[in-house]
Amino acid sequence: MCDVPGLVRLLKSCCGDFARARELHLRVLGDERLRSNVRIRNVLIDVYGKCGRIDEAREVFDGLEERDVCSWNSIVTAYATNGHLDMARDFFERTPGRDVVSWNGITKACSHHGLVDQARIWYDRTPWQNVVSWTAMLAAYTASGHLDEARSIFDNMRQHDLVSWTAMLAAYAGNGRVRDAWNFFIRMPERNLVAWNAIVQTFAQNGHFSKAVETWESMPDLSALSWTIMISAYGNQGLVDLAKRVFDKMPCKDIVALTSVITVYAQNWDLEHTEYVFAKMPCWDSVAWTAMIQAYSQNGKPEMAKATFDTMPKRTAFSWNCLISASAMYGHLRHACVTFDKMPVHDKVSWTTMVSGFTQNGQLEEALEGFNRMPKRDLYTWNSIIQALAQNGDLKTTLELVGSMLLEGVKPSYITYVSVLTACNHEGVVNSAREHFGIMLEAHGILPVIKHFHCLIDVLGRARRLQQAEELLYSMPFAADEVAWTTLLGACAVHGEIEQGERAARNALRLNPCSDVAFTLLSNVHVIAHSLVGNTIVYSKYAGTEIQFNGADHILLKEDDVIGLLSTEDIKDLKPVNEPNLICPSRY
Known about the structure:
By secondary structure, the protein is mainly alpha-helical. The protein contains 35 helices and five strands. The strands form two sheets. It has a three-stranded antiparallel sheet with strand order 3-2-5, with no helix packed on it. It has a two-stranded antiparallel sheet with strand order 1-4. A hairpin with a 3-residue loop joins strand 2 and strand 3. The longest helix is centred in the last third of the chain and has 15 residues. The two termini are 50 Å apart.
């Protein structure tokens, strides 16, 4: 048996691996010197809690002859992590000699379960506060989309460290507040790699691809994560060759980067290269295995996803959940239920994945029944069921669930109202969308993010209120992103509005010159407007390059991007002879 510090390290590495933790625990029980060590027992409580084994954690706690404040903090955290907030509060109140860790722990527990008001009560009761306390409350507000309150906490902090600066930046980034995130990033007195990576990812995930590339180029240093973010960014744009070029230039290729390449190929329907990269990996961790499960699932091979899962040497909750999702995606709900029942421990993600599977297959009653059976529900699970019903266009039930969530004391977040507005969008009710947009602001103090405006633009477009949609696009407190412009362009395509459509397309292409969506929608605008039958006006991203047509003819495209009138069958034969210049960082 190793010494105490070595054993502590081994135990901490077991988080999520109950069998290994239990094995080490039995070895501890066989050694009198280790059995009486309070530090080891405290770590065991913490590890069992993280494994979802609250009974075992309580058994270790009850078996302690002497308990220090760490023992009490560990059992409070174990109960809180597993959704037993009443028990966590009870043990917290009984904790002798509570320290700042105790107070921060109960605040974080309420925050984790979306109980922002309760988190604030505990925060205000804390007799002494430090950077950790402030950051915990800041995290509570940001997780629920209450960024003004989060910013107030930040501004009133007596001292700021890099963690608090980065936490506030991540809050803006995670809530899609691109301009605020950028302004905050500029103000940071010191920027670490976490901050740089966060701002690049913010641009990449919110329709500002060119800005993401530009910022990435200016980074003073690149971590493995930095390279991986850019690989994923190119992959999400469908620029697989450039993603591969970034990967090839990466000085040290770790398993995370290799896994991101697998994901890029998979999401771009290239299963052959996905399998090739996976086969060539020097080793596979659970994330790589799970990426392959997702790859097979995305590419229409659920049986291969199941075979890969069966081959995994060690399964995680994430891999179980991916298999459930894969089965549900293809309507194999019986297999999804069997997999769910076989899971050793059901976490909130597995419950939510199962519920989402029912909604994807139109079984809304079963979805609601599964949601009501959940042993614990927090903001994440509420948002998941609300989002699922909203995407099915069930506005009435969506609003009923929001009401029930409020009655349970869970505050809505910006995500909740993205779902509400999505449901309004599906039913085409403009007035209802505007009403709930106002409720979000006035009743809950949630500032709108750009996704809320996407929904409003879409619902106005569906109602053929295109002028109002464009006015909203110009007046919103954000720079319009590619999604906003293509949403308007899509509405113009439906209604054949040429002038507005071309204006929206120019702006979308200014943000992303490689957008196939924009070109396709612009073509559709003209098709609808001119009622062309059997012919299509094709707008191509290959403007100014040669193309090959019918295997031989070469056409030099005009600078206005218009090829001309071609039949739908002819379009299939178009392919570029020389590729256009795409956005490609100069640093490599």
